[in-house]
Inverse folding.
């Protein structure tokens, strides 16, 4: 069984890098969508999300999906941010 927490941290790292390239940061995030292949493991993803975005408190939705392109992926995250 894979590590949802670690994969969520990695997704947030990737997203933070993309935001930085656009001149933004996690502080600019207003909404997140966390897609999981097993929604019963949402607390693991929520822990990582909270560690990185607790001060921002974006609207957040958890969604269960049947699978991703790579069968080892357990989580994927979409972020919406407002850039000045």
């Amino acid at each position: 069984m894979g590590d949802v927490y670690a994969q969520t941290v990695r997704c947030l790292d990737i997203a933070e890098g993309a935001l930085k390239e656009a001149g933004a940061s996690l502080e600019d995030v207003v909404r997140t969508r966390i897609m999981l292949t097993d929604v019963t493991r949402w607390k693991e993803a929520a822990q990582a999300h909270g560690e990185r975005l607790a001060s921002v408190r974006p609207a957040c939705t958890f969604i269960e999906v049947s699978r991703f392109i790579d069968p080892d992926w357990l989580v994927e995250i979409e972020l919406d941010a407002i850039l000045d």
About this structure: The radius of gyration is 12 Å. The chain has a mean pLDDT of 96. The first strand starts at residue 29 and ends at 36. The beta strands are 29-36, 59-64, 75-81.
